[in-house]
Specification:
- The protein has 408 residues and is α/β, with parallel strands linked by helices.
- It has a seven-stranded mixed sheet, with helices on both faces.
- Strand 3, helix 6 and strand 4 form a beta-alpha-beta unit.
């Protein structure tokens, strides 16, 4: 299988735009797109037949496929529209209240922080943070930070852990973190937004109580497609955010999630086609063999061209397909300066810079403010090649030249 420009024609991507931020929204293969359109046509041609007679069997078939892909029992798995929806289902079902705490980190995803703080406002829950230092020196330092928080705060009922953080992109020692949480008798919810298709998954062996992850990022499914894994002891406790007409309470768990109104669930029913595509182009081994090397070269290229540096991380915490590189200081695009001790808003998108790079140079990238400086997060997918990142370096170099002419 030829990657780079050769396979790009097999994706529904604008041919005039370079995409180097696959991790945010993914990219849909044409074959999966056309398969989904065929399902939509069948649904719209006979809606009653679709919802009354077809949906249950398609749901079960798709769940079986994903369960095998992620190392799960089908009975422990349900579809949700995103990792954010899965996290909301768990957090809102646990009925925590005043006197209870949830432990997250300064690297937790924006929507996770916002969900937690909304529950803090509604229910009186306390939200505690592991404030991850810059630079993080080792996995052992991270493990010690979590253990210290668990020792100090008996009120913690649930720990929300990432496998791969979004910004900065870091591969965390999740199984070791889960073991520490178990030592102190805490429930564990794993945010696996970047797991399916990216890193090896065996959900039954993970040791968590709950796991949720997106299938549209690295597993090539349509958007609005994610899974929520629930340990069997919580099947009757974790309910979807919307109560539909197939609600069975503590009966068959999957039926609680099946009918969320007469919505378009064709993304769920296209998962089999997406996994076929994923395996057909080489599976995880083949994809990582190309993309891991590419993203490493891309990051090195930007560091050299821009005369900056990599986000400092231990080697064993680098993600396979994502990197973060410091941007040169630009007066026109200053980073957000966060006061010491403020952990909730340590990470900010730099939308003006991103829009300028897109509108002027035709490149879609992710620029962020983290640890009081500007960075660019790089991703590599099978449709990327090194020339994409060379053009990105050229674009940023042009902005640097222009910025030097700005008078302060």
């Amino acid at each position: 299988m030829s990657f780079g420009a050769e396979i790009r024609k097999d994706f529904v991507l604008d041919s005039k735009t370079i995409f180097v931020n696959h991790a945010s929204c993914g990219a849909l293969p044409l074959d999966v797109y056309n398969h989904r359109l065929g399902l939509v046509q069948k649904m719209e041609s006979s809606p009653d037949v679709w919802f009354r007679l077809k949906s249950e069997s398609m749901w079960k078939e798709s769940i079986d496929t994903v369960a095998e892909f992620l190392g799960s029992k089908p009975s422990n798995l349900v579809f949700v529209k995103s990792t954010t929806v899965g996290i909301n289902a768990v957090l809102r079902s646990l009925k925590l209240g005043r006197g209870d705490s949830i432990l997250i980190s300064s690297w937790s995803y924006f929507a996770v922080k916002d969900t937690c703080h909304e529950l803090e406002r509604q229910q009186g829950i306390e939200i505690l943070y592991v404030d991850i230092p810059y630079p993080l020196k080792s996995k052992e330092q991270l493990l010690e930070l979590y253990e210290t928080m668990l020792q100090k705060h008996n009120s913690i009922c649930l720990v929300l852990l990432d496998v791969i953080t979004s910004v900065p992109p870091v591969l965390l020692p999740v199984k070791q973190l889960i073991a520490i949480c178990r030592k102190y008798g805490k429930l564990v919810l794993v945010d696996g937004a970047h797991v399916p298709g990216h890193v090896e998954a065996n959900l039954e062996d993970l040791g968590a109580d709950f796991f949720t992850g997106n299938l549209y990022k690295w597993a090539y499914a349509p958007r609005d497609c994610a899974v929520l894994w629930i340990h069997e002891k919580f099947h009757g406790a974790i309910m979807p955010p919307v109560t539909g007409y197939s609600f069975y309470g503590e009966g068959e768990m999957w039926k609680n999630y099946l009918y969320q109104g007469h919505g378009d669930f064709t993304p769920f029913y296209s998962v089999g086609r997406a996994i076929d595509f994923y395996r057909g182009i080489g599976g995880r081994e083949g994809i990582l063999d190309y993309c891991s090397s590419l993203v490493t070269k891309a990051a090195d290229l930007l560091v050299t061209r821009l005369r900056t540096f990599h986000y400092p991380l231990p080697d064993d915490m680098q993600t396979p397909l994502m990197r973060q590189v410091a941007l040169p200081k630009l007066k026109k695009y200053p980073p957000v300066i966060v006061p010491p001790g403020e952990v909730k808003r340590k990470i900010h998108n730099m939308m003006t810079l991103m829009e300028d790079i897109l509108n002027r140079f035709g490149i879609m990238c992710a620029c962020v403010s983290v640890d009081n400086r500007a960075w660019i997060r790089l991703c590599a997918s099978v449709y990327n090649e090194i020339s994409d990142y060379e053009k990105l370096a050229d674009a940023i170099a042009t902005l640097v030249e222009e910025d030097e002419e700005i008078e302060v």
